């Protein structure tokens, strides 16, 4: 297919990322570039939403001003945890906090990333260099704090403790699956238990409400005809085209902290031969890629079997199921964006 030959492949990209970029890339994603406290629409049926906005505005002011006692010692920096169900706007609020501090103190004053991005940063830089880099920030935001990997949870707890001891303000969120709304909806108890020594420092803000998108747990993306996938990719500037297996194999050769750089300049990702992923290590790498695609609002074209059944039933019942359900929801949304492009 001559047209496909002109389209670059993600599997051919070998991102080389300087260590300092891994830190400077910790900013609110493009998907939330316009998120501010003023654009959050608090639902009057759930007063906790407006209370949370007001308190976070106070936190932003605390972080943005000097906190020295009469004896010259730095007062304890604020540490807040947004506790709530799926789709109540916690990420909007967290990015608003990061944006506000950045606007007041400079864009390098706040670091923003997902739990996975921080654990990947430690994997790429090492623990102490990561502490030193983040300790220069006034605020570190951790979105989607995950409790499904004991080793990573201990690592992040230790990282947060080091940063808190150095006077860095902290803010975190985590998610509960929509299907769990009737039981164990809120994760604060689990979060506080896992961070142990830091628990007393965190102020928990409960954000009640319904999923404002009124979406299902999983959005299945029906596959596109593979000829349409190839033709659309060939016609779109900034598109990439890969066979699914080739991309999965390539991801195993790239550190997950560099998946964002892998997508530099990419405006559309087209995949042919999409099928179920059998191995968990491969599936988890795919989850990280989907998160980076979603952060950047990059549409996806899915050929083969589409996203239906891409993760096995065993995976969706296992310890990492929150990751997989999140990836399915996000991949479904990106695939719908891609379908719109293919139909133009």
From TrEMBL:
Coiled-coil segments on the chain, per record: none
Keyword Iron-sulfur found: no
Tree of life domain: Bacteria
Presence of keyword ATP-binding: yes
Gene Ontology terms, MF aspect: ATP binding; ATP hydrolysis activity
Keywords on record: ATP-binding, Cell cycle, Cell division, Nucleotide-binding
Entries under InterPro entries matching the protein: ATPase_AFG1-like, P-loop_NTPase
A GO biological process held by the record: cell division
Gene Ontology cellular component terms for the protein in this record: cytoplasm
PANTHER family for this protein: AFG1-LIKE ATPASE (PTHR12169:SF6), ATPASE N2B (PTHR12169)
Listed name of the protein: Cell division protein ZapE
């Amino acid at each position: 297919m001559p047209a496909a030959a002109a389209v670059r492949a993600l599997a051919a990209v070998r991102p080389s990322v300087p260590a300092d970029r891994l830190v400077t890339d910790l900013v609110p994603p493009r998907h939330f570039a316009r998120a501010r406290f003023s654009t959050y629409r608090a639902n009057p049926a759930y007063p906790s939403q407006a209370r949370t906005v007001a308190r976070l505005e106070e936190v932003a002011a605390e972080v943005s001003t000097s906190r020295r006692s009469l004896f010259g010692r730095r007062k304890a920096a604020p540490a807040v945890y947004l506790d709530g169900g799926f789709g109540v706007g916690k990420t909007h609020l967290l990015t608003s906090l990061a944006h506000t501090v950045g606007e007041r103190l400079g864009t390098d004053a706040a670091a923003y990333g997902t739990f996975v991005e921080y654990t990947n940063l430690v994997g790429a830089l090492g623990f102490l260099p990561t502490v030193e880099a983040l300790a220069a920030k006034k605020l570190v935001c951790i979105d989607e704090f995950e409790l499904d990997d004991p080793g990573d949870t201990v690592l992040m707890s230790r990282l947060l403790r080091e940063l808190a001891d150095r006077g860095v303000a902290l803010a975190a969120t985590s998610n509960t699956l929509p299907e769990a709304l009737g039981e164990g909806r809120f994760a604060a108890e689990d979060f506080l238990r896992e961070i142990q020594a830091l628990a007393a420092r965190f102020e928990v803000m409960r954000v009640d409400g319904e999923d404002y998108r009124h979406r299902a747990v999983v959005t299945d993306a029906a596959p596109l005809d593979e000829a349409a996938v190839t033709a659309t990719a060939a016609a779109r500037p900034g598109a990439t085209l890969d066979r699914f297996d080739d991309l999965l194999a390539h991801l195993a050769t790239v550190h997950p902290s560099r998946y964002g750089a892998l997508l530099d300049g990419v405006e559309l990702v087209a995949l042919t031969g999409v099928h179920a992923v059998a191995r968990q290590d491969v599936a988890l790498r795919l989850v990280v890629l989907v998160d980076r695609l979603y952060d950047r609002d990059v549409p996806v074209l899915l050929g083969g079997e589409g996203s239906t059944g891409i993760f096995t039933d065993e995976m969706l019942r296992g310890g990492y199921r929150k990751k997989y359900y999140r990836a399915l929801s996000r991949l479904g949304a990106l695939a719908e964006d891609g379908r719109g492009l293919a139909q133009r």
